[in-house]
Amino acid sequence: MSCIFRSDEERQVFLTQVDHVFLAIRGDAKFSSIYQQSFTPPNSVLREIEVRLTEVRARAMSTTVTTEADGRDDYDCLERFDYQRWTEKGGPLRGTHSTEGTSFTLHLSEESVLKVFELICCSPEASETVTSVALSALIALAELESFFTPKGVEAVIEIAYKTRSEITDMRAFEVLLYRINVLLLACVQHPNAANCNEKLYITVLNHVLTTYFEASSSPLLRRTAEAAVETTVRVFFERQMSRADSSEGAALVEFVGQMVRGEILGFQSDGNHITKNDPEVLESLQKAQRNSSEVFGEVPAIQLAGLRLATTIVTLLLKQLRTEEGRHRISNVLVSAVQDVLARALLIAGVKCDHVVVLSEVVHVTKLFSNAKLSFLLRKCTTF
Predict the structure, then answer these.
(1) Given 62, 296, 332, 365, which residue has the most CB atoms within 10 angstroms?
(2) Is residue 29 helix, strand or coil?
(3) Residue ranges of the domains in the chain?
């Protein structure tokens, strides 16, 4: 993709966000040393960030440039504001001096933009302030809805859960986690995310649930993570339920079913989760069972989170099946997954449960099935 701007408004938003990142960098003690020292090692990450960010800004500003008859181009104007001119290989760009009015465009690719933000967000040398500003910039770009391609959305999500930063203040770290969750949610709601694989949604859920179940998370951060999880599930299934030819949805239903059955013991920030079926986990569980019961303490909480997601799925499904048009539009793969996997998970959770709150939630979701009076959805629920 050579040019990523569909309108001048998008270009201005992009330039504003890049300027915000530049201000944060130049205000940071570690990054500002680049501008104070006469020599910086050529292989320095900080130097690479400076060069790439300067080039991206210069290219964005020249996407629709007309050279003037006085022989000066817009890059000459950039130099008056102390903006450097660089090529992708690190060399200076030549000015296109001309005595005639001609137009030219410097192509700006999505990959080059994301590479800059990846360098900032995934560099342990960056402070939490600089990283937070870079994440805020990505959030603003993702909210434009037409800025990123499907591959770009996947790349931004990868940047989000791989974000690393130098931590000096726990409050700033909470802000960083908050913005990561907001960025993941913005990516999920992006229109081009509809073309992404459902494994990407599961990765997002695993990462956000890590924040939700983190013991040190504040109540505000927990509520933000909870809202992000429910919105992610709702957006995914709303999209899938409007596609009769969709073959996705079963994997995410299975993920929720594992939470409901109590098979998931924890979540990891790299987008994975820990289950009881893992051999290494079984061995650690046996040791933990002899020494402490803390490992099992989180299982009811994970089950409750899964049951809330199950309620969202079942509510959306029943709403779709109430009309004749909705029944024709919905995918058979999704209906089968709900009635076989999710209903069976409710049965297992209800039979093996000795937690009153979890059992009440199981009964609540099961009641949604029975009140719908849809016989083909009651096959697994009649046992109750």
Answers:
(1) 365
(2) helix
(3) 245-384
pTM for the full predicted model = 0.77
Eight-class DSSP state of 195? G
- As to burial, measured by CB atoms within 10 angstroms (0-12 exposed, 13-18 middle, 19+ buried), residue 171 is exposed
* Bridge partner residues of 66 (DSSP): 103
Give the C-alpha separation, 310 to 339, whole Å.
Answer: 12
Rounded to whole angstroms, the Cα distance separating 9 from 6 reads 8
> Strand runs (DSSP E) across 167-276, as ranges?
264-267, 273-275
Give, as one character, the DSSP assignment of residue 162: T
Within 13 Å and on the Cβ side, how many CA atoms surround 97? 5
DSSP for 254-323, written as a single string: HHHHHHHHT-EEEE-TTS-EEETTSHHHHHHHHHHHHH-STGGGGHHHHHHHHHHHHHHHHHHHHHHHTS
Residue range 48-98, pLDDT digits in tens: 787 888 888 888 787 653 333 344 444 444 443 444 444 444 444 444 444
Residue 81 token pair: 């504001």
CA angle centred on 251, ends 318 and 147, rounded to 5°: 90
Rounded-to-integer distance, Cα 31 and Cα 46, Å:
7
Q: What is the pLDDT of residue 15?
A: 87
Alpha-carbon separation of residue 369 from 238, 314, 348, 376 (angstroms): 19, 8, 16, 10
